[in-house]
Write the structure tokens for this entry.
Amino acid sequence: MDTAYLIETIIKVVVILLIFSALAGIGTYFERKILAFMQRRLGPMYVGPYGLLQVAADGVKLFTKEDIVPTNVVAPIFKIAPVITAATAFMAAAAIPFFPEFTVFGYTVHPIVADVNIGILYILGMMAVGLYGPMLGGMASANKFSLLSAARTAAVFISYEVVSGLAILAPIMMVGSLSLVDFNNYQVGGISHWIVWSQPVAFILFWISAFAETGRTPFHLIANDHEIIDGFGTEYSGMRWGLFFIGEYANMFFISFVIPLIFLGGFGDGSFLGAIGLLAKVAFFFFFFLWTRAAWPDVRPDQLMWLCWKVLMPIAVINVVITGFVMMF
Amino acid sequence: MKMEAFNDRNVADNGYFLVDIEDYPTDGWGKFKRVVKRSFRGELFVGLWVVMREMIRFDIHTVQYPQEKMPIGPRYRAVHEMKRLWESDTERCIGCGLCEKICISDCIRIDTKIDEDSRKEVSEYTINLGRCIFCGYCAEVCPELAITHGGEYENASDQREHFILYEDMLTPIDTMKAGKQLEFEGFGSITPHEDERVKKTPLAY
């Protein structure tokens, strides 16, 4: 392990941290604007031109707010829970190739922190660990709504880990590797080589479970405002609450990277056009998260469980079996 | 719109029909068929299309309040105004005290004295807007149409006892000289251009 490699890795980590922390903030701006437009409103308008500096105003507010640890909470767990959410979200990003490799001043940069050979397994595992953020936060809080939210978190995350894992198993069988770079290279031949054409069921199942694992609207049960206040976030304030938020939005961005990389060709042949194409796909998937929030109602928790165990999981298993038979013969 | 559509009570010939609601399935196979039908009917995409259509159409209904304000109707009962006489620009209020007497929340305080011309003069007149319920009795009872309600509704205050004085309510003399005093159009007056917005109310089905 030479020094250049170490320096390069540290720079990449810092860049990813900075960009995606900022993107989480800007993501809230886009969410508020797009939701407003879909509901015939204007959204934030006063801070800066078209409300663009609203992100900065929110950031200043979050950073300078008093850090309240309420009386009856389990303080150490209460304090560490938001860190788990944000940290696991960013740790999952380590195995995501954000761009094709490019050359700067004769030095080839691989825009992936660690191209480990178990990339997808690592990402899924890290997102599964992310469950401990809301769950511990909710259990450490001293109110019943947070506790309900913690219970829902455990149920939803564990259930949909099954669906996303089984759904992704079929593409893994086809590619024969767990590295996202290998996935990208498998589909390098253009649109007709995308895995989505041979695995449309897996694509839709993984997309559905992405909504559950980021806790977005059709499955927005773990912090459902109209039922359980803010769920696990009820007793949080200031930057601790902000860390939950950054974690949630960073997760949305990362899953929006993972879906195109696995199913929709990723950055293609590695040209500049391919990189732009990947960004466009990520933008679409992020926009879709906001779009569904404006359009669709939430499902009930029992319907969510029913959907997972009685519908999606059998379909995923059948999909894996059929893929296996097709590959065998 | 023709009124026949509302007056004709024979609903059977007018295109009304009973909505065909299927019985809820009781057995497993029926439930399964219902799930499949609902999954592939594409209702979720209808919802997606509706919000996308509104976003593309960009028909924003927001009123950006401090910069933009909705026009307010003449019937609106906001902070009181004291009018002047058109002939002499003097105050209309004759200090009769009827408004103080009728005020049901007891928020008007009026004091009068005899001035040097042996005429009754208002020496003190205050309204406690913190108590006022803006019922409009003072304006209705006023024999001289002196006290009326205006359209100024932005009366946030740093304390509950928010008083407004006679001089604040009185039409400024330069506004009066310019002939810009707005007359109260009377109770039951309608909003300007209301004719264009009015729609017929169906009286019968």
